[in-house]
Design brief:
Bound molecules: zinc ion
Shape: flat
Number of helices: 3
Strand order of the largest sheet: 1-4
Radius of gyration: 19 Å
Structural class: alpha+beta
Distance between the termini: 55 Å
Strand content: 5-15%
Length: 108
Amino acid sequence: MFEHITTIELAGYGVGTFLLCATISAPKIDSLISTSQRSSMGMCKRCGDLKMIACSGCKGLGLIKEGGPFNIIPVNNIYQSKMRSIGCTKCQSRGSFSCPECANLSEN
Ligand SMILES: [Zn+2]
Ligand SMILES: [Zn+2]
């Protein structure tokens, strides 16, 4: 019985990981679908019915590397994992904005 419960838990983790991947890859899918395809499918031209737009400042991550390309990195601190990440101020660390065109439609 214990093994059975473990299997269900593992399946739950799998679904959670899938949903997380789907959320992260959403902006990529967004760019793959052209504007003309969206309009022919009745989707929002701006966001493809995602109801949100990935932040251009942080590439949808909600975090940006502190310092940027002009930051001088010490030799013993060259690994990116040691670089500090700070919350994106453009999107308040959310990684995306709500689509203005979809917001207008809901208001009307
Ligand atoms: Zn951002
Ligand atoms: Zn939209």
